[in-house]
Amino acid sequence: MIAAARALLALALLAVFYALVAAMVLLWGAFLAAALWTAAEPGVQTPPMSVVTACAAFAPIVFGMVWAVIRTARPAVSREDAVTVTRRGAPELWRTVEELALAVGTRPPARIRLTAEVNASVTEDAPLLGLAPGRRVLYLGMPLPACLSPAELRAVLAHELGHFSRRHSRFGAVAHRGAAGLDAARQAIQEASAANHLVRLYAGWPLLLLGLYTRVFRWLTRPVRRRQELEADREAARVAGPGAMADALRSTAALEAAWQEFLADFLVPMRRATGRIPDDPFRAFAHMVEAPEVREPLAALRARAVERPADPDDAHPALATRLERLARLPAPEPGAEPLFPDALSPDPLAPDPLPLQPRYAVALGRVMLSGPDAGKRVPWRDWLTELAEYRATRILTPLAEAVRGVEEAEGAGRQKAGPEAVPIGEPEAERFPEPEAGPAAQPDALTIQRVLRLLDGGHRMPLARALNSRLPHGERTPHPEQTERDDPLSCLADALSVLIGAHLVARGTAYWAMNWTGPSILVPPDGIAPETIRTWADTAVRLPGQTQRLGLHLAALGVDERAPLPCPASGTAGGPMPGEKARRISIAPEVTGPARRRIMAVGALALTVLVGMTGVMFALWAHRDEPSYPRIPVIRWNDRYQPGGGPGTGPAPYPTYQRPTFPDRQTIPTYQPPLPPPIHIEPVIPRSAP
Question: Where is the composition biased (Pro residues) (predicted)?
């Protein structure tokens, strides 16, 4: 009941997510329309460029979320990193899958595809978010049929088909597509923000909200999906047996860790150093798994896999929980016959439990290791031989650097020609004559003679310290019981024995045997034990005066002390010549073709929206209407207008001017000073006589 409620709530949450994406698209379109409308309004002084910038920044975000929804809502497309297996190419595999599908009570898948991962899965490309039936596809990792026993492989196939019989593909498709859609949306926003600085300014809040939404969705769907895994385990145990299913779970977990180590420790370093890759990497991996020295590490991986807790983001329960549930199931009765006796009868130690044509592995290897820098493909057996040589002789480059450094520091090597150049000692000068000039004589090439010269000159400890300082941390102590402080000469003895072995291999009298857990093993010529050459080198390094005896042994084997190693052909496992300058390899992550196209698409989308909307907005803003202000009517004088009007006065043909009238204002009285009294001057002026 709780599981059903969680499933319904997850479906509702997924529907809400799709609705939020639609609302975001509408809101983004509304902002664009509002910006255009505002730019076309009369009286706008400047167009709203801030809104246009925000819309251009959100365009890749909105587009990425819409594309994620469309990609997850429709039926899943075929994976590009998989190879389809036909019935003619693998009839026994198809027959086994159909028989197991009949046993678990479901219809078989329509297609079987091989992948380059240690995993198996089933999908149903159903429409309507997986609610309707569709085409079924079984994905099978190529390392599984190459390394699992027949019983374990059938248990894995029965587990995957058990998802179909319990109708897990219905809710599983919805949960998977919902989680994939949320992850795809987050990835699209992260890639867009990483590709464009403008998008990065506005991508914080969408990423935060989407991350919280993803956590809630996974919290709702995780218990349901883990319960479905336990139900599929029970179906597989009913068909193949609880023991086979438990062994399959342990082996798959160990193989997954071993496959990652194979890629990281062998395949990738070999490709970077030599440019060589195997045409069938899965058979090379199977050779590693079947090696006797790998059995103990694989057992340790199986034990650690049981102790590992479940990943919070993984739909599978912890391995300990699954094994505990399988142990509770009843074991098959002793006299009970298997459902398919022919299918379970092959020998578990058979190399090909379900034979597949080699062309499938080769085709999948081409898909797995593709690109211009993938490297040159060679037969996988030849690649193993070159890998053994590369792992053995990679110590020679540090040895050449150490020899050169000690010679320069101590003055024990060959000096430049001049009046001050004198031999180090007369006996040593007689024993180590200068090599004759010729194509084989290289001034800076590593030779056995240069190493023995330093040993006879008493520079064994400086040479050992210089070599140990140049070795990687994992290669300083080839013998676990010894440490660099207790025995600093051990690595020097190993390097000298490798140098001698490289000369023997170059002569064709010896070869390197692959050792997956340590340095490669030298197989010397007939009549010599494998540890004899190592004993000779150790004696010459530790005991003074023993280099002459080593020279006699080498002369008996036909090895010239003065001859440098033959320059390896281009692309061989020898890599750069010891003493030569190695290629510089950058550790910066390379931008792949798809990533470069995504970066260009994000930048082009943001730039298109920004430039296009800016152009349209400026065009609307430039052609906007001028604002209209209310005008005061002009009243003109009309001669026909008579003040006061009259019966014969006609209407004026146009507005007439009227004199403005002002209100009467109160007159302010003015102050007048009194006038002086009048002066009569008549009595003063004499009057004329008549």
Answer: 671-680
